[in-house]
Specification:
Protein name: sulfate adenylyltransferase
CATH topology of the largest domain: Rossmann fold
CATH architecture of the largest domain: 3-Layer(aba) Sandwich
EC number: 2.7.7.4
Distance between the termini: 48 Å
Keywords: ATP-binding, GTP-binding, Nucleotide-binding, Nucleotidyltransferase, Transferase
Oligomer: single chain
GO molecular function: ATP binding; GTP binding; GTPase activity; sulfate adenylyltransferase (ATP) activity
Strand content: 25-35%
InterPro entries: CysN_GTP-bd, CysN_II, CysN_NoDQ_III, G_TR_CS, GTP-eEF1A_C, P-loop_NTPase, Small_GTP-bd, SO4_adenylTrfase_lsu
Shape: globular
Number of helices: 7
Radius of gyration: 24 Å
């Protein structure tokens, strides 16, 4: 079955955890003992109903405060599709968590409280989903039961968000009125909103088309591992393992190896030990070539006529994730696909206000949870595409070499301008 990854986003108390709890409950994806534990906790808290949000709020602090702090992942499946849900926090100080949860999502669910309409945090999360190039966005107008299931309220919020979305780059936008607490239009169609003729949420999640979201034109195969089994029967076997992150590969295709530039042809492709006729994203396969070439982890296979950009000067948007600020001159480890390098921060061009979309150019650093445009120089060339074209080859993480902690996440805009005579 096809896998759909989606992330929830929105303002505090818009009902993100309750919505996911309702999805899990109504699709019968939770165990009986889990439901009993939630009912017991709900009763102890004084709730008059079973608080399904407790299925997601796993941290003690989350249960005590009634908020989401960390990214919580849940898994469920229907006969049509498998799902991975990332429940991301709504607070400003947890922006980095939202970026983490949405970075691999195929779809973002942005929730709005029908009583409050669009809030600053709602706009911020929609902008981040747009910046991360999440292909599909669903605006769920929640708590419709508290406004009497009024169509005018839904249409007003829908029009306001459409106007705001004109500033963003959203490829697919859908609006659904729901009540996560009562289950209206979540898994089953609500009889209380006969004016809504669109799909219920689960139906949309099951049928949204995601296959075309992946780049099937530009071949990109970052080499992760060299496979050399210790066996007399396979003494001359050599293959290269990795995940196809772009294009379609078939036996007989000509490929070029980066950074060497040598070319060869594909002898065979194996998936879980069995030969296959083609490989495409997101398959993880072994590829053998007709020529004996020096290929190791961090190298990349591509088409000779359509290679990625090869550069050491990178222009990127970076989300900073730790309390120690990022300043020009900082030296960090950089992880891009399967390739590792060291990077120097040459310049911070501007910081973008994720609430107003305003650019602040007069700054000396990026603080925790801030996002800005940064110029980097790496010790070895990277093989990348623009993030808008390929989210895998267009993204990277920054690592503190002293603590080995991930301190930043980057989205590549392209090669950075370089001044002749400039020193790294």
């Amino acid at each position: 079955m096809e896998l759909l990854r989606f992330a929830t986003a929105g303002s505090v108390d818009d009902g993100k955890s309750t919505l996911i709890g309702r999805l899990l409950h109504d699709t019968k994806s939770i165990f009986e003992d889990q439901l009993i534990a939630v009912e017991r906790t709900s009763k102890a808290r004084g709730d008059e109903y079973t608080n399904l949000a407790l299925l997601m709020d796993g941290l003690r602090a989350e249960r005590e405060q009634g908020i989401t702090i960390d990214v919580a992942y849940r898994y469920f499946a229907t006969p049509r599709r498998k799902f991975i849900i990332a429940d991301t926090p709504g607070h400003l100080q947890y922006t980095r968590n939202m970026v983490t949860g949405a970075s691999t999502a195929d779809l973002a669910l942005v929730l709005v409280d029908a009583r409050k309409g669009l809030l600053e945090q709602t706009r911020r999360h929609a902008f981040i989903a747009s910046l991360l190039r999440v292909p599909h966005l669903v605006l769920c107008v929640n708590k419709m039961d508290l406004v009497g299931y009024d169509e005018a309220v839904f249409e007003s919020i829908k029009d306001a968000f459409r106007e705001f979305s004109m500033k963003l780059e959203l490829a697919d936008l859908t609006f659904i009125p729901i009540s996560a607490l009562n289950g209206d239009n979540v898994v089953t169609r609500s009889e209380k909103m006969p004016w809504y003729q669109g799909p219920v949420l689960l139906h949309h999640l099951e049928h949204v088309h995601i296959a075309s979201d992946r780049d099937l034109i530009r071949v990109r195969f970052p080499v992760q591992y060299v496979s050399r089994p210790i066996s007399r029967k396979l003494h001359d076997y050599r293959a290269w393992s990795g995940q196809v992150v772009g294009g379609v590969l078939r036996p007989g295709d000509e490929v070029m190896v980066l950074p060497s530039g040598f070319t060869s042809r594909i002898r065979g492709i194996e998936l879980a030990g069995r030969p296959v006729e083609e490989a495409f994203p997101p398959m993880s396969v072994n590829i053998s070539l007709t020529d004996e070439l020096d290929i190791s982890r961090g190298d990349m296979l591509c088409r000779p006529g359509n290679p990625p950009t090869v550069a050491q000067d990178i222009d990127a948007m970076v989300c900073w994730m730790v309390e120690q600020p990022l300043r020009p001159g900082a030296k960090l480890a950089l992880k891009h696909t399967t390739r590792s390098a060291r990077a120097l921060v040459k310049d911070i061009q501007y910081r973008i206000d994720v609430n107003t979309l305003h650019r602040h150019e007069e700054l000396e650093s990026l603080e925790l949870n801030e996002m800005g445009r940064v110029s980097l120089r790496t010790t070895v060339p990277l093989f990348f595409d623009e993030y808008r074209r390929n989210r895998h080859t267009g993204s990277f993480i920054l690592i503190d070499e002293g603590t080995n902690a991930t301190v930043g996440a980057g989205m590549i805009n392209g090669p950075a301008a370089w001044t002749p005579g400039e020193h790294p």
